[in-house]
Amino acid sequence: MRKSDYIRSKERVDSCLKLVGEALVALEPLRVQIPERFADRGLALIEDVTNILGFMAIITEDNFYASCTQTNMVRTEPDRIGKVVVDNVRYIELHYDKGSKVIANVNLVMNDNLPHPIFTEHWGKAKIPWYYDQEDLAWMFMNTGRDNGVTIGADPAILEFGAGRLCRNPDDPTKFYREQLGSKELFKTKPPVIVGFKNVSYGANNFSTKTGGSFYSPGQTSALAHPAERNERVEWFLRQ
Length: 240
Description:
The chain is an alpha+beta fold.
């Protein structure tokens, strides 16, 4: 499967869900996808009682989908569980028949430990699931104060700045995508490359920063292949 096989439509997916009591119920057969690596990161527990992170895609039978950025674990009651590969990445796929509970209880438990592994996975390592685009990045942590009791960024502008830093020019990942963006239409025809905060090859701009952390080898290679055009103030200070 490829991302292009799916069509984004929140309205279509909303029409297939209904709140019954405290449960979100499927009005027609649905699927939910999450990255398989979530199970290794403690972000999904697939057992007799299934709990998954609310960073998921809800997909209809005709491949319309909507993405969710809920920073809580949700209990779900799938009828079948399988696996699928989308753009060479493995995903767990949960199947729901008509009447099944996609979310067993919408009253979610607050967990202030979840934002950190979510941040590391998506912003730190730039492991972005196929169902998110560049406009979703800033929204990932917009409601952590309400849902987790932990605020990431005192102002939405901070999250928007961070999301802008993740998006790089596909022709030159050392440059920010916003520097060459002329129209939002470019998002579709030439989307950005996502470079995580932990990527020293493209995330740092001088020799000292690239080689001073815990990723010395890739940082050194990047520093030699892409030497800085000028010395930063911190380098001038360190060399005195």
